[in-house]
Each structure stands twice: as structure tokens, then as C-alpha cells.
């Protein structure tokens, strides 16, 4: 489970519903943009500012014309709505994301067992 | 049509350039602006034609960007950038003559949109261009965010920052780093404390912070601490509850 390496972003995420969107990583989702266009693709990443990165995207513009994009990055400001897939258990997803954040916070990052506090040599 | 009025001559960005792609054509609303170099810098996105004129886009104005390899939609693989701004050849008073700039509703209150395409001669560079744009875009979060609760102080203990000595929260300074952060007053305080420590080392009954005849100095900041000199056996009579 990937968690942001930024303290600020983790804090923002655990205090907002962005944490739910971050749990959609890997899932195919439809994002409605502010300008009435829509993008359907696999979520690669959602950051604390709700910037959404999608892969293998079907993009529908305001006139209804469809095109395909390998990758798409939409700024959070321009996201109107994110469709949560039906099969997603919203509560479980949020809890898993919170647990991932807490694991990083209390037990270190990728290296398990790394001491949380600096060793005595610093004193 | 005439020359694109928004094109200017200026030097390319000098710092924070995450990616630079030469031999890249810029296209606005289906109209080619020529061949040049795209600079994806942390401060802004800049494209400069080989002749030296070009334009810059600020990340907050960029709604989205994408890699398009769908040749049925557009005949060349490119980096697509949608901008929340108006870039026109004609003056604003003139009615929109070119079909590609016409918006569906043509409402005055509809958001202006400009579609740029950056077509590199090296198609394999598109991934790197896309990634660089994502990184730079993330550096410019929306200041108008409705959620005003984004003032998180970050009480979380950043394990990585404290181990690697960088991160969002300043942690431990090395000696040299710490010195460089001192103000003049801080420097004076440091010297005074070091002087006191030097005194205390020479006499085992002196503690740092205890003023003795040797360590009395002028204290510029007026901070004077009166501590009674330590007398051996001073606390012998005290009742101790353990």
C-alpha cells in the first residue's frame, strides 16, 4: 500500500476524504471534470491536493467525442466528481489507507524495524 | 492570420528545469507555432521556438495534461496540455472566426480553454515529459482550495526526515548548519554559554549557568539568572519522599 512520503500530505490525507480516493489506486474509475468532460481510466495516483493521475484513459470531451490517452493528470481543482466503483467497500478502503499511514508513522517507512528515534550517538 | 500576439522573446528558464525537450513542435488549437524546445521547469512551462520567441504557461492555469498516442484522434503522438486561459490571434473584440476556438456554448461565463499540443520528434520522450509535468504541477497546489483546513501543522513524527536530516520539519542540524542559522544575538548567546561550560570544566563545583567570579560578564539581553551557589550537604536535611 503506497503512502505519500510527505508528512504534510499524509496529514492532509488522513483528515479528508482524499484518503478514499487514494485507496482507489489500481482501480478503473471515471472522473468527471469541471468543464463537463469525463475521463475513465485506471487510477495510478491521487495526491493530497486531489490531483488525479490515470492510465489507459478513455476521454470524452464536451461534444461527446471520444479519444484515448495513455496517461492523464488532472489537477484537483478541475475534478468535479470521482465515481467510486460499486464493488469498492468505502469504509474498508479508508481504514486500510489510514492503517498504511499509521504504519509509516509508527514503524518507519519501507525498511521494517527501523528505529523510530535516533540513536544515542546523536546526543 | 497574423503572428501570434502572445509570443514573446525571452531567455529560457535557468533553474529548476526538470525536463527539456528540443525539436518539439507546439500546436495551439490545431495551428502549428513552429519547432522549438519545451522546458518543463518547476516555476512554469515554457516553449521557445528555435528563433527565440515563445510563451510560458503557469501551472495553476493548467487544468490537465496527458500523453496521447491515439493517432485516430490526432495524427502525431504528443503531450496534450489544457489551459484555463485564452490565447487568441485576433483581438478580443473581433468575433471568433476560426472554428477551432469556438466553444460549445460560447457563454461569457464559461471557462476559457486553450488546447496545446507539444509534439516531440522523439516520441519515446513523452513519458519523461509527462512525469516531469506531474512533478511540477504538484508543486503548485490550488491556493483557492475551498477546504481552508489545509493548515495542518504536521504533528506526525517524520521518521524519514529525522533519519535523513531533511524533510518537512527541520530536525537536527549538524554543527556547521546550525552555526549558519544563528543570528548575531544567537551567536553571542552561544559564545556566552560556551564560556560558561569552559569555566565549569575547570572547577568541579561549578555548574553551567551558575555565576561565579570568573564568569560574570555583561549580558546584552539582560537575561540574568540568580542561582544560589551550591553548598555541599545543602539538602541533607530535606525530607525526601520516594
From TrEMBL, chain A:
GO terms for biological process: mRNA 3'-end processing by stem-loop binding and cleavage. SMART domains: Sm (SM00651). One of its GO terms (cellular component) is nuclear body. Gene3D superfamilies: 2.30.30.100. This is LSM10 protein. One of its GO terms (molecular function) is histone pre-mRNA DCP binding. Residues 16-88 form the Sm domain. Pfam families: LSM. InterPro entries: LSM_dom_sf, Sm, Sm_dom_euk/arc, U7_snRNA_Sm-like. It comes from Trogon melanurus (Black-tailed trogon).
From TrEMBL, chain B:
Belongs to the pICln (TC 1.A.47) family. Its main location: cytoplasm. The keyword Zinc-finger does not apply. One of its GO terms (biological process) is cell volume homeostasis. InterPro entries: ICln, ICln/Lot5/Saf5, PH-like_dom_sf. It holds the Pfam family Voldacs. Residues 98-110 have a biased composition (Acidic residues). GO terms for cellular component: cytoskeleton; cytosol; methylosome; pICln-Sm protein complex; plasma membrane; spliceosomal complex. Involved in both the assembly of spliceosomal snRNPs and the methylation of Sm proteins. Chaperone that regulates the assembly of spliceosomal U1, U2, U4 and U5 small nuclear ribonucleoproteins (snRNPs), the building blocks of the spliceosome, and thereby plays an important role in the splicing of cellular pre-mRNAs. Most spliceosomal snRNPs contain a common set of Sm proteins SNRPB, SNRPD1, SNRPD2, SNRPD3, SNRPE, SNRPF and SNRPG that assemble in a heptameric protein ring on the Sm site of the small nuclear RNA to form the core snRNP (Sm core). Residues 91-110 are annotated as: Disordered. This is Methylosome subunit pICln. It is found in: Cytoplasm, Cytoskeleton; Cytoplasm, Cytosol; Nucleus. Keywords: Cytoplasm, Cytoskeleton, mRNA processing, mRNA splicing, Nucleus. The gene is Clns1a.
Amino acid at each position: 500500500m503506497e503512502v505519500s512520503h510527505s508528512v504534510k500530505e499524509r496529514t492532509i490525507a488522513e483528515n479528508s476524504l482524499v484518503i478514499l480516493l487514494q485507496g482507489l489506486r489500481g482501480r478503473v474509475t471515471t472522473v468527471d471534470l469541471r468543464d463537463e468532460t469525463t475521463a475513465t481510466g485506471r487510477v495510478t495516483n491521487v495526491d493530497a491536493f486531489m490531483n488525479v493521475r490515470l492510465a489507459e484513459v478513455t476521454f470524452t470531451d464536451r461534444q461527446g467525442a471520444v479519444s484515448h490517452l495513455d496517461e492523464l493528470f488532472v489537477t484537483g481543482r478541475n475534478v468535479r466528481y470521482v465515481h467510486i466503483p460499486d464493488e469498492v467497500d468505502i469504509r474498508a478502503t479508508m481504514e486500510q489507507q489510514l492503517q498504511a499511514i499509521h504504519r509509516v508513522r509508527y514503524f518507519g517507512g519501507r525498511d521494517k524495524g527501523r528505529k523510530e528515534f535516533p540513536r544515542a550517538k546523536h546526543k | 492570420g497574423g503572428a501570434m500576439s502572445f509570443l514573446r522573446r525571452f531567455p529560457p528558464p535557468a533553474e529548476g528545469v526538470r525536463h527539456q525537450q528540443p525539436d518539439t513542435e507546439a500546436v495551439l488549437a490545431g495551428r502549428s507555432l513552429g519547432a522549438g524546445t519545451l522546458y518543463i521547469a518547476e516555476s512554469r512551462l515554457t516553449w521557445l521556438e528555435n528563433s527565440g520567441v515563445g510563451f510560458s504557461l503557469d501551472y495553476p492555469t493548467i487544468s490537465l495534461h496527458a500523453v496521447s498516442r491515439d493517432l485516430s484522434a490526432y495524427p502525431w503522438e504528443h503531450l496534450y496540455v489544457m489551459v484555463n486561459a485564452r490565447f487568441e490571434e485576433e483581438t478580443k473584440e473581433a468575433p471568433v472566426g476560426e472554428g477551432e476556438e469556438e466553444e460549445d456554448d460560447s457563454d461569457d461565463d464559461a471557462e476559457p480553454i486553450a488546447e496545446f499540443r507539444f509534439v516531440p520528434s522523439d516520441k519515446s520522450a513523452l513519458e519523461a515529459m509527462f512525469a516531469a509535468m506531474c512533478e511540477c504541477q504538484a508543486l503548485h497546489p490550488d491556493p483557492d482550495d475551498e477546504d481552508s483546513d489545509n493548515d495542518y501543522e504536521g504533528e506526525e513524527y517524520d521518521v524519514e526526515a529525522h533519519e535523513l536530516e531533511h524533510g518537512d520539519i527541520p530536525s537536527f542540524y549538524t554543527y556547521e548548519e546550525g552555526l549558519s542559522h544563528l543570528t548575531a544575538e544567537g551567536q553571542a548567546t552561544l559564545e556566552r554559554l560556551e564560556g560558561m561550560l569552559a569555566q565549569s570544566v575547570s572547577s568541579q563545583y561549578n555548574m553551567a549557568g551558575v555565576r561565579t567570579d570568573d564568569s560574570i560578564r555583561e549580558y546584552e539581553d539582560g537575561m540574568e539568572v540568580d542561582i544560589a551557589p551550591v553548598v555541599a550537604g545543602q539538602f541533607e536535611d530535606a525530607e525526601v519522599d520516594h
